[in-house]
Amino acid sequence: MWEIRQERAEDAPLVEALNAAAFGPGRYAKSAYRLREGVAQEASLAFVAVEDGVLRGSVRFWPILVGNDPALLLGPLAVQSAQRGRGIGIDLMRKGIAAAKELGHAVIILVGDEPYYARVGFTRLPPGRLKFPGPVDASRVLGLSLKQGALVTLSGTVRRPRLDEAVCAQGAGMG
Ligand SMILES: CC(C)(COP(=O)(O)OP(=O)(O)OC[C@H]1O[C@@H](n2cnc3c(N)ncnc32)[C@H](O)[C@@H]1OP(=O)(O)O)[C@@H](O)C(=O)NCCC(=O)NCCS
Could you tell me if the CB of 76 is within 6 A of ligand 1? Predict the structure, then answer.
């Protein structure tokens, strides 16, 4: 059985390798990647699944703004290909969502498959309510309220809250 714990500095290269294997080079062209580029992730919300000393999966969150409201962007979420279907992905997300709630975040959004993310409570947002930097499939824009009503009032342009110089200097917001 795996253990979910917070990502540590020494996990980062393994997490990046996992994301590279799961998403391939095409990930850099995605709208979600553009929102992460040059911005540090929410370090307190990065979790890894470890089993027998092996990193099996990872979830990270990024801070974003929707209109002028702070929100979180879930992802990347990835599990080693040979370990999928065991519940690791859901377990990682549950930990991350619970921690985000505890830290007082109001809402999480993501771009992904609704049938999967519905398992942890995500629902589709009305098409056009959020405007991403670049094209996204409207049926894949999902959200989860951590505070009552937070999703109902969420609308506008999705953008980066700031640029972090240290991340810019590395040349990436990896993943
Ligand atoms: C998506 C991913 C993280 C799921 O991780 P996982 O550990 O296999 O997921 P879980 O074991 O918690 O859940 C598996 C269940 O979800 C279902 N599921 C997985 N991906 C799904 C999808 N895209 N749509 C609908 N259902 C899906 C599986 O069929 C399985 O169902 P079952 O429990 O009825 O057998 C993993 O497949 C992965 O790393 N994929 C490549 C990267 C990726 O696409 N990430 C998501 C985008 S951010």
Answer: yes
Q: Do residues 49 and 2 make contact, with C-beta atoms less than 8 angstroms apart?
A: yes
85: CA distance to ligand 1 center in Å? 6
Closest CA relative to residue 64, chosen from 25, 105, 13: 105
Give the model confidence (pLDDT) of 89-108 as tens digits. Answer: 999 999 999 999 999 999 99
Distance 121 CA to ligand 1 centre (A): 15
Contact 15, 173 (CB under 8 A): no
Query: Is 119 within the bounds of a domain?
Result: yes
The answer to the question of residue 170 being in a domain is: no
Residue ranges making up the domain that contains 117 = 3-163
> What is the identity of the amino acid at 98?
A
**C-beta of 146 in contact with ligand 1 (< 6 A):** no
The tally of domains found in the chain comes to 1
C-alpha to C-alpha distance for 60 and 42, rounded to whole angstroms? 7
CATH of residue 43: 3.40.630.30
pLDDT tens-digit map of 36-89 = 999 999 999 999 999 999 999 999 999 999 999 999 999 999 999 999 999 999
In a domain, 146, yes or no: yes
* Ligand 1 nearest-atom number relative to CA 74: 48
| Inside any domain, residue 81 | yes
Nearest CA to ligand 1 atom 19: 116
